[in-house]
Amino acid sequence: MKRNRFISAGGMRKCYAAEIFGFPEEFLNRASDEWVLKDYLENVNGDRYDLCRKDVQTQAVAQTLGEIFSKKVKGIEGFGAFPRILPSFLVQQVGPPNYFTIEPKIDSSSYVKHINNDGLPEPPSLRSQLGQKCLAFSHWSLKFTGGRFLVCDVQGSEDALTDIQIASVDKERELFGAGNLGEGGFTQFKRSHECNPYCTLLGLERFKIASKQGSGDEYGKCGRFRKKEKLA
């Protein structure tokens, strides 16, 4: 493996372009040697192996949910294609830092974040076709998993998504990474989510939310759209 140029840094990790040698192409499932290496910043607390393992585990669960979702929407007229979620791999090397993750490189020129890890959408995604699909995917993930997991922090290009986070019920927070905000993320998403035509195509219903005042139930902003409405 060869670490090349620095790409960018976020709140917890820095990214580099990388070349990977010696792995079977069928294992990597990629017809290119363009990869991204993600390494934790020095000031991030926690065991590096555990941090990276949870990142890979989070991405794997999100990838599985994405594959199930993509198969489902193929049979829904008018929905169209949904981007794949990239795989992530845990790599160990001799010498510090010993652990980091790698994943296929995607087109950064069209990179957009649609949903944050707190469950709140990025405003432009409320109007874009891909953004609406991603929001519908997040809504579906919470329903499909019986309220256990919410796929969030959804971002990427037109054909591939990456850096996914999963918010989980509090008793399962240890399964996923530091970006897992637990049931607080559920509440944020439910209160802010406005269903779009893709939610309607999936048959998703508005969320029922317990009222803080204890005076009954509230409902999320999940409206119903007529199927003939233009998808935009």
Description:
GO terms for molecular function: ATP binding; protein serine/threonine kinase activity. This protein has 232 residues and is α+β, with helices and mostly antiparallel strands. 27% of the residues lie in helices and 23% in strands. It has five helices and 13 strands.
In short:
With 232 residues, the chain is α+β, with helices and mostly antiparallel strands. Helix content is 27%, strand content 23%.
Fraction in helix: 25-40%
| Rg, Å, rounded | 19 Å
Number of domains: 1
Could you tell me how far the N terminus lies from the C terminus, measured between alpha carbons in angstroms? 42 Å
Briefly, what CATH class? Alpha Beta
**Annotated CATH topology:** Protein kinase-like fold
**How many helical stretches?**
5
| Quaternary assembly | single chain
Biggest sheet features? 5 strands, antiparallel
**Low-confidence stretches at least 5 residues in length (pLDDT < 50)?**
214-219, 222-232
How many β strands by DSSP? Answer: 13
Q: What is the correct CATH architecture?
A: Alpha-Beta Barrel
Strand content: 15-25%
> SSE order, as H and E?
EEHEHEEEEHEEEEHHEE
Largest sheet strand order: 1-2-3-6-5
GO molecular function, one term: protein serine/threonine kinase activity
InterPro entries: a-kinase_dom, Alpha-type_PK, Kinase-like_dom_sf
GO biological process, one term: response to differentiation-inducing factor 1
Pfam families: Alpha_kinase (PF02816)
Give descriptors for this structure.
232 residues; alpha+beta; Protein kinase-like fold; 5-stranded antiparallel β-sheet; 4-stranded mixed β-sheet; globular
